[in-house]
Amino acid sequence: MVQENTVKERIEKIIGACPNAENDYLEATDWLYDLEPDKIDEIIADFEIKYENILKEYIQIIGAPSYDEKTNRSLIDRWYPEAIRISCWEMSDRLFYLSLEQHDTETPVCILIGCITNLNSLNIFDSCPKF
């Protein structure tokens, strides 16, 4: 597991650098060329377990997410369709997120954190639930 202060530092760095923050990749596979779909599914399942463990740590530090792919999949698909799993925390004019993503079948499976700003200018957050 990641040390708590390291997690806090990573979160603060990403949020502080918004809107110019680069995604912080916590873990990633290599490219998945020539792998059978069943093997890719196994890799994703392993990463989902890792994602859940990381999510538990983040919740302990910054609280429960404002929403995730289970509570608002249609909204997430409008701005981040590559996200297999995602948890989003609304923070003033910023949206901090933890994501498990894969862009295409041969691309790496990744767990990352990121931040976007100017949520209202995206015109996709109008339906976002407020907690």
* Largest sheet, strands/sense/barrel: 5 strands, antiparallel
Cα-based radius of gyration, to the nearest Å? 15 Å
Structural class: alpha+beta
What portion of residues belong to β-strands? Answer: 15-25%
| Uncertain residue ranges | 124-131
What spatial order of strands do you see in the largest sheet? 1-5-4-3-2
Count of alpha/pi helices: 3
Strand runs, count: 5
**What's the overall average pLDDT, rounded?**
87
The amount of helix comes to: 25-40%
Q: What is the succession of H and E elements?
A: HEHEHEEE
Shape: globular
From the N-terminal CA to the C-terminal CA, the straight-line distance is 29 Å
Provide tags for this entry.
globular, 5-stranded antiparallel beta sheet, 36% helix, 131 residues, disordered C terminus, alpha+beta
Describe the structure.
The structure is a single chain. The protein has a five-stranded antiparallel β-sheet with strand order 1-5-4-3-2. Helices cover 36% and strands 24% of the residues. The chain contains three helices and five strands. A hairpin with an 8-residue loop joins strand 4 (94-101) and strand 5. With 131 residues, the chain is α+β, with helices and mostly antiparallel strands.
Give a brief outline of the structure.
Helix content is 36%, strand content 24%. By secondary structure, the chain is α+β, with helices and mostly antiparallel strands.
How are the SSEs ordered, and which strands pair?
Elements: H1 4-17, E1 24-28, H2 37-62, E2 67-68, H3 73-79, E3 83-91, E4 94-101, E5 110-117
Antiparallel strand pairs: 1-5, 2-3, 3-4, 4-5
